[in-house]
């Protein structure tokens, strides 16, 4: 058996104390729900997986993945729910005239 050397960590600790490893990532052909999207975003942000690897592994577009990251950063995991897309998609800025 050969063990591939990697500069990436084998596990990461999320801000809530949860430990995330490659084994915790969803399957390649997963049915996407908010928690699985958040897991992939956290893996990339934590350095467990590269952005390019995530996009390739899960057959995502760059725009789709970037929208997940932005949603999590702005509003948290709940913004990844399909039923909440319209609520969190565009935050309107009031113009003063």
CATH level 4 superfamily of the domain at 30-89: Winged helix-like DNA-binding domain superfamily/Winged helix DNA-binding domain
Q: Output the CATH class name of the domain at 30-89.
A: Mainly Alpha
Strand content: 5-15%
Could you tell me the number of beta strands? 2
Verbal overview:
This is DUF1153 domain-containing protein. One of its GO terms (molecular function) is sequence-specific DNA binding. It comes from Paracoccus tegillarcae. Pfam families: DUF1153. The protein has 97 residues and is mostly helical. It has a domain at 30-89: Winged helix-like DNA-binding domain superfamily/Winged helix DNA-binding domain (Arc Repressor Mutant, subunit A), CATH 1.10.10. The chain contains four helices and two strands; from the N terminus they run E-E-H-H-H-H. It has a two-stranded antiparallel ribbon. The protein is globular. The termini are far apart. The model has no long low-confidence stretch (mean pLDDT 84).
Keywords:
97 residues; mainly alpha; Arc Repressor Mutant, subunit A; two-stranded antiparallel ribbon; 4 helices
């Amino acid at each position: 058996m050969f063990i591939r050397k990697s500069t990436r960590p084998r596990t990461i600790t999320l801000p809530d104390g949860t430990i995330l490893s490659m084994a915790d990532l969803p399957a390649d052909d997963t049915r996407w729900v908010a928690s699985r999207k958040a897991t992939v975003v956290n893996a990339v942000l934590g350095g467990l997986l590269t952005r390019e690897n995530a996009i390739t592994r899960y057959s995502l577009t760059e725009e789709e993945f970037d929208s997940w990251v932005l949603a999590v950063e702005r509003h948290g995991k709940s913004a990844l729910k399909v039923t909440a897309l319209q609520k969190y998609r565009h935050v309107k800025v009031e113009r003063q005239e």
